[in-house]
Amino acid sequence: MLEVAVIGAGASGLVAARQLIHAGLHPTIFEASNAIGGAWNSKGTGKMWNGLHTNLSKYTCRFSDFPWPDGTSMFPSVDEMHDYLEGYSDKFLTSSPPSCNFQLECKVFNVEQVLTTTAIQNANYKVEWTDLTTQTTHSRDFGGVVVASGFFNTPKWPAFIFVTKNNKQPQLMHSSEYRTNSMFKDKNVAVVGSSFSALEMSANIAKTAASRVVNIAPSIPWVIPRWIPTIQPTLKTTDEYEEEQNISDESTTTSLTILPADLVLYQRTQPYPKVPETTSLTPDDCRKRHEYIQSLVGLKQRNSTLGEPLNTNEPPMVAISDEYLDLLREDKIEVVHGRLVGINDDGTLQIDGNSGDNSTSELNGIDHVICCTGFTPKLHNFLSTDILSSIDYDQDDCFSPMTLACDTLHPSLPNLSFCGMYRGPYMGIMEMQARLAAGVMSGTITLEEEQIQSALKTSQSIRTSIPRAQFPHFDYPGFIDTLSTLCYQNGECPKYNTAVGDMIVPTFYQANDELSQQCKAEIEDEVKNGQDGSRMPKLVLGSILGKWTYDRHIVHLQTRKVEHVYGTVKYSKYWDRSTDEEDEEDEEDELRDELRDVTRYREDGFYELTPNKKFDVFREYEYEVNNDALEIYFVEGGKRALLFLSLKFVPEDNISSSDDGYWIKASSDHLCIKDLYSATFRVKLNGLSASEIIIKYRVVGPSKDYESTTILKPQSS
Ligand SMILES: Cc1cc2nc3c(=O)[nH]c(=O)nc-3n(C[C@H](O)[C@H](O)[C@H](O)COP(=O)(O)OP(=O)(O)OC[C@H]3O[C@@H](n4cnc5c(N)ncnc54)[C@H](O)[C@@H]3O)c2cc1C
Ligand SMILES: NC(=O)c1ccc[n+]([C@@H]2O[C@H](COP(=O)([O-])OP(=O)(O)OC[C@H]3O[C@@H](n4cnc5c(N)ncnc54)[C@H](OP(=O)(O)O)[C@@H]3O)[C@@H](O)[C@H]2O)c1
Q1: Which pLDDT belongs to residue 717?
Q2: Are residues 167 and 146 in the same domain?
Q3: 382 ligand 1 Cβ < 6 A
Q4: What confidence tens digit (pLDDT) does each residue in 201-237 have?
Q5: Which amino acid residue places its CA nearest to atom 8 of ligand 1?
């Protein structure tokens, strides 16, 4: 049985070991830390902060043959991810008979090829490591090696940062060291970077900060929330479908569908297999991608101080954050466009502007600088120079530092494989790389020379393409399908979701029919839930923030008298503690999860008695999502009072989207003493922003019989 060393016990190392065992090989995992889980090792040396949730749904963040337990969050927390990986390891690696040898607290410092003529199949690579508990070094030959040491492991700092520090300079931290927002509550913080960590961390700090949070953003990404609305074919329940078939031959209808972003972005645009993988984008491709993302986000970002990406001829950058744009709007995050290039002795931050005119700016009074400046490859710490030279390794290339077939294999390095070692690894891809590695090592997969050469060419073209996309394998369908055609040469997988419009998730890339059917049913339920109106209140609250003008007409149905009120409305959001009493323990802990999003409606205007006579009016309400309802509360003396309305959104069939959006509607009845208020709340949505709101009340009571219609339009700034 071939002995294989696996370097790293993160998601990639665990799935590699599982696939090696499945292929009849015997893995030994070396892990520098004292526990498994890698970046998700919430109890040890992980890279995540308290309150972080995955930015891809649980359908993408999973392995094909290990479903999440019931009740898992749609975007799992760090603890959920850690437990998932532990559960995976328990089931596939350590349950009896134990089939994987774990060497925890063992850091590999050398891997080299055994090149003597006497090298036998079971001794192709020498692996050397330090046992960190005893500080002793060890060496052993293995038949194969899988490198799964993680791509987001070693912090990358801005080049200038290693200046002498004095006590006037702000404290520096890398994003990978950040754990909780509680220590920044009263500090002025600069968050450097414009990618995932920078936006999410700015938001995480700003929600509880009493002081400044400044995001120094070198570029402008599209900011996409975890949930996005799209128009999709309406999914009927079986009963509804049968009923419809009996009544008529109606064609497919469409519905507003709110889904996790990954389930929208990774829908097939070509039937399986989408090969070859797309590796470069023409300016026209780039423009189309920008247009598509713009159609998803609407005008929300354009109207923010971040603005939209400027050069649409270049590949779009994306960052996922639910609240970054809302916090910008509430002035809780400031954006400074530019690149941090230095910190003066007096603590002033030097920022190079993006305008191309050599403009620089300065930022004073910053207590902490958090560098969300990415990660750097560190394979040169343990792979021999010969191996590095074979894979054409470039340690300064944080995008794609080596040339490999499918970022997994190299023909000159038999039985050496890489798993998850590229920028932005997804769990489904790690698993396919692991299958390929194990299959090739065990001889169950044979690759033709032409297949290997073509895959190497793809790798080279990714490394040399200019301009570079955000991720080397930005074509997720293309990459996973390519791996699938190599791993399942008999075409056995995927059996499901192979047609245009189908969602691509790891589960379909394995042979167990029951697991695939189960996942298919879960995804169908997600689509139905996305269409039943229950996810709309949150979307609506995110879309209406900002300033509006309003016009209200009140028609008294008995007398036909018409009253007119007009003015401005501001919808603003704040983050409130859910508990009345401050819990001391919470203070030390992450505050994010205990915060409630509350939206304040404030209306200031004039009541027009006659064309020449008017008087000031103002009123306030509070809006909050409660389960699947949008609740509106009265506000008295600045404080929330009684519940006024509980609005439910109703799904509408055949929703048709024009250039400026589509209407959605909610309604509620409320008995206020003896008066019955029937309310309808209509919002015209354009992606994530609203372009018009119409609020109607029909009020009937012993002395009331009127209809009030308020039309809100965005206030031009
Ligand atoms: C802040 C942040 C958020 C992220 N969020 C998401 C997300 O929402 N969804 C998602 O899919 N991905 C996310 N990722 C990507 C994440 O890297 C992957 O999910 C996954 O953790 C990668 O697993 P891995 O095993 O390849 O690497 P890692 O999890 O980094 O594990 C590598 C392991 O190798 C060990 N190791 C390294 N060198 C050696 C050595 N020489 N000897 C012994 N052991 C060694 C390390 O100690 C580590 O335990 C995020 C990453 C970061 C940094
Ligand atoms: N689950 C989550 O919510 C979550 C949160 C955070 C991260 N992640 C994951 O973690 C991975 C890494 O993301 P990341 O954001 O940490 O790293 P990243 O994507 O590599 O981004 C690094 C950022 O730092 C910027 N930068 C570098 N040097 C700079 C300087 N001197 N001044 C200003 N900016 C500078 C880069 O800009 P240039 O490119 O212009 O140099 C880039 O914007 C991603 O895959 C992401 O999905 C997930």
Answers
A1: 59
A2: no
A3: yes
A4: 999 999 999 999 999 999 999 999 999 999 888 876 6
A5: 54
**Residue 314 CA to ligand 2 centre (angstroms):** 18
How far is residue 303's CA from residue 715's CA, in Å, rounded to a whole number?
11
* 201 ligand 2 Cβ < 6 A: no
Q: What's the CATH code of the domain at 552?
A: 2.40.128
Is 465 contained in some domain? yes
d(CA 579, CA 213): 25
- Say yes or no: CB of residue 81 within 6 Å of ligand 1: no
589 and 683 fall within a common domain: yes
Assign residue 626 a region (left: φ > 0; alpha: ψ between -120 and 50; beta: otherwise): beta
What is the C-alpha to C-alpha distance for residues 34 and 278, in angstroms, rounded to an integer? 39
| Minimum CA distance residue for ligand 1 atom 17 | 152
Q: Does the pLDDT at position 241 exceed 60?
A: no
The CATH number for 184's domain is 3.50.50.60
For ligand 2, say whether the CB of 77 is within 6 Å of any of its atoms: no
CA-nearest residue for atom 18, ligand 2, is: 374
Is any ligand 2 atom within 6 A of the Cβ of residue 158? Answer: yes
Q: Which residue has the higher pLDDT, 9 or 609?
A: 9
471 and 325 part of one domain = no
* Residue 225 beta carbon below 6 angstroms from any ligand 2 atom: no
What is the number of structural domains in the chain? 3
Domain limits at 205? 157-221+317-371
Give per-residue burial for 98-133: e unless 16+ CB within 10 Å, then b. Answer: ebbebbbbbbbeebbbeeeeeeeeeebbbbebbeee
Final residue before a domain boundary, out of 371, 398, 416? 371
Q: Do 317 and 221 form a contact (C-beta atoms < 8 A)?
A: yes
